[in-house]
Amino acid sequence: MSSLSRQELTARVFVEWEETRRSLRECVKKVLLNEGVRDHRVWGTIHAYCFELMKRLRTVDAFLEATIRNAKLFDLDPWVRNALRVGTFEMKFNDVKPAIATNEAVKIVVECVGEGPARFVNAVLYDVERLELSDVLNRAKDTVERLAIEYSHPEWFVKHLMDLLGENELTKLMDANNREPERYLRVHAHMVDPDKAILALEDDGVAVEEDPDLPFMLRVVDHDVPPVRTEPYRRGWVAYQDKASAAAAYALRPEPGDRVLDACAAPGGKSAYLYALTEGEIELTCVDVNPRRLREMRRNFRRWGIEARLRRADSSRLYRETDETFDLALVDPPCSSSGAYVRAPEAKWTVKWRHVKRYARGQLSILRGVAPLVERTLVYSTCSVTVVEDESVVRRFLREFDEFEVEEPFGFGSPGFDSWMNERYPWADRVRRFWPHRHRTEGFFVARLVRS
Description:
Low-confidence stretches: none
Active site: 383
Number of strands: 14
Number of helices: 21
Distance between the termini: 62 Å
CATH class of the largest domain: Alpha Beta
Organism: Methanopyrus kandleri
CATH architecture of the largest domain: 3-Layer(aba) Sandwich
Mean pLDDT: 97
Largest sheet: 8 strands, mixed
Structural class: alpha/beta
Domain SAM-dependent MTase RsmB/NOP-type: 173-452
Family: Belongs to the class I-like SAM-binding methyltransferase superfamily. RsmB/NOP family.
Radius of gyration: 23 Å
Pfam family, one: Methyltr_RsmB-F
CATH superfamily of the largest domain: Vaccinia Virus protein VP39
């Protein structure tokens, strides 16, 4: 068991994240395993603490940028920078007395860097203590920067979404992104009767309610133990899946006997829901380009009782590599994850606006690689809220593949945007968007494209 404090473990996680840019969950796992932490309660505490700091990172950094003199925050030693972040977060967002927060940060730097940098940390946090958030916000050059600091979101996100939603609704969205997300569980109806799964969860201390829109989806209402510690979860009867993610799969409307392609399948959640919807009565082919994620999907499918063909391939070239056709195909390609900030706040700080445009090019390329293989219906979805990756990609796809038309996937959710810049989307009321502040889900986009 590690003797390191919560603060030092957190600083180690953030140093690891800066070096690798892997997911926060993976970084927490690596650090805690390296430190010999085995208690799952400690894991939960450290992950939750890191999660909250990551959500507030832009605001925390703004406090530091307002106080550091003769240096730039990102030029500092990583241990110094992240000890300062932990100390600032402690006193400004975690109600820790400034003297205690400063002392913990100084101890981290003494241990990992040395006495000289520790004196610097002490001086900076002394100044941070005397700053209020209003002082930091008053330094912003314009409304976009002020909102980005106050709600801890990237400036490109604030600018893009303010143009689409207006400032009032944008602040509601960003506030929702900084709150605890709703938790949903998917029931593997091919393995267990849903009522039996619900009773078993309740016996283990997890209260759930059935979703009104989607079969086999449960919202976690309350829990005495985390759902992952329950017998239904261990047996593979249930698994976490956001409602909006499940809705993307539901939009395919699979029927028994259908040949179904999931073109960007790993780690397999949407494929699993398609399988559950038909109680396993589909021919499922799952493709992904990433071998590590394919291995993870294979392990998941064994636990979840799913039979499928798994194939490593680049779906943008799929039509050139196979003569096989499919009744239905789901394309949920890599994206900016700008709709997933509520669950993966690290995505805020790893994607820039230029990356969004690059993602859009890749998304269209995958649609081109899959569309010729689809005989009936193609669903395109992303966990992005940018028009660039959503409506604009669909518009470009329809111009190239005019044999497809947009069909409304279901009645719940919100319609898409009907215009952006100089583009028009006359079918916007037939695509669906999900928003954290409106629907208690991740931000998601779903378009059902039917071959006419």
